């Protein structure tokens, strides 16, 4: 539900509050599910997108690298989500 709120804040252009909600969601997902649960990794990736749109690339880069490492570990190197993350990371660099 909070992820939907963050999506709504994105549509409204409220970057500051969207980033705050995305960070909160990530903290809760880590606590509830653990670091390698798919929902936690999706929350990390959502935060990266928000940070990137807000121009916070220095903060987004290590999080995106962590997303890639977790997707490789969980899904494997040839999974479409892993390959998309590799592409997104390369585009960030």
TrEMBL record:
Superkingdom of the source species: Eukaryota
Protein name (database record): Kinesin light chain
Organism: Hyaloscypha bicolor E
